[in-house]
Automatic annotation (TrEMBL):
It is a multi-pass membrane protein. It is found in: Membrane. One of its GO terms (cellular component) is membrane. Keywords: Membrane, Transmembrane, Transmembrane helix. This is Methylamine utilisation protein MauE domain-containing protein. The lineage of its organism: Bacteria, Bacillati, Actinomycetota, Actinomycetes, Pseudonocardiales. It comes from Kibdelosporangium aridum. Its main location: membrane. InterPro entries: Methylamine_util_MauE.
């Protein structure tokens, strides 16, 4: 079951890494992200704080998950503690983001998904489902963490599966448009 945790750590870590980089790669990208926050029902005076907290959480969780993956691959128990912390914080962040998106969709606020950079797609139920799946994956990652060694080859395959899953999450809007038309 530890391999599910490996896949979950890689998937969550890559999703959060790309999300953080897409927000922080330029002042314009960060400003557009921050400007999108009031559509989620956050008062304008809290926009800067929420933008900074979101970005900081994404970066911190990414670092925890990256370190945990490397340490677990090196068969060090410290990796399990970091994995528990990283996946646990992922559960919290994805939970908050799922509720925020759900509220924006329910209120028909017209909020735009800037999760992975500039976008023009108005949030819809499919984004709630995407975030809920991320939440479920993080929960599964925590639930399947187990002590003991992992086979490096199987762990690498699990990590590759997590990376493929991350691509699907990151390109979610494109895939949904392709399938729905």
């Amino acid at each position: 079951m530890a391999y599910i945790s490996v896949a979950a750590m890689v998937l969550c870590g890559l999703v959060l890494l790309i999300s953080a980089v897409s927000k922080a790669r330029s002042g314009k990208d960060y400003a557009e992200f921050a400007a999108s926050i009031p559509a989620f029902g956050i008062p304008a005076q809290w926009t800067r704080l929420f933008a900074a907290a979101t970005l900081a959480a994404e970066v911190a969780i990414t670092a925890l998950l990256l370190c945990a993956t490397v340490l677990m691959a090196a068969d060090l128990n410290t990796g399990r503690w970091l994995a528990t912390a990283g996946l646990g914080l992922s559960v919290g962040l994805f939970g908050v983001l799922t509720v925020a998106v759900w509220r924006a969709v329910a209120r028909r606020s017209g909020a735009v998904c800037r999760c992975f950079g500039p976008a023009h797609t108005v949030l819809a139920r499919r984004h709630v489902v995407r975030n809920a799946l991320l939440l479920l994956i993080a929960v599964l990652g925590v639930a399947t963490l187990s002590p003991g060694t992992v086979d490096p080859v199987i762990a690498a395959l699990a990590a590759a599966g997590g990376a493929v899953g991350a691509v699907f999450v990151i390109r979610f809007d494109d895939l949904a448009d392709l399938l729905v038309g």
